[in-house]
Amino acid sequence: MRLLPSKMRTVWKKSTRGSSMARSEFRLSMSKTGTTRVTVKPGDRLPRGDTDWARLDAMTDEEVVAAALSDPDAQPLTPEQLSKMRRVSRVKVLRQRLGMTQMQFADAFHLPITTLRDWEQHRSTPDAPARALLLAIERDPEVMRRLLAETIA
Prior knowledge:
This protein is mainly α and 153 residues long. The protein has helices at 23-34, 53-58, 61-70, 79-84, 90-97, 102-108, 113-120, 128-139, 141-152, and strands at 9-14, 35-40.
């Protein structure tokens, strides 16, 4: 699980309640009982799941693959399904890793919000100077934020 550096983290986990329901009943009630939202403050430990890690560590790779393939809810994607999937924009990944909204990111780094949205939605790609700026932001966001704030003052 990748965690974002934010003040509050939200962890979603699937609940085991209602597993004996009929599939249609489960779909109808899933939004109410199928998922639990847990908010964790910085420094707090993440809630422990009910995974038996010792049992998993004892399994061979072949047993792990066989167990994964036997789960009807987690079947691997076909090549056709994979080809239809779109990659997440590197700009969006960077922004999310910094825990910023589009508006916050655009304001902090003096980018037009429409340009940022176009990059994130693959309507356009950053040109060479923009890629250099994004690389600098990726390497040291606080220094870049401070440098860009000084140019305005």
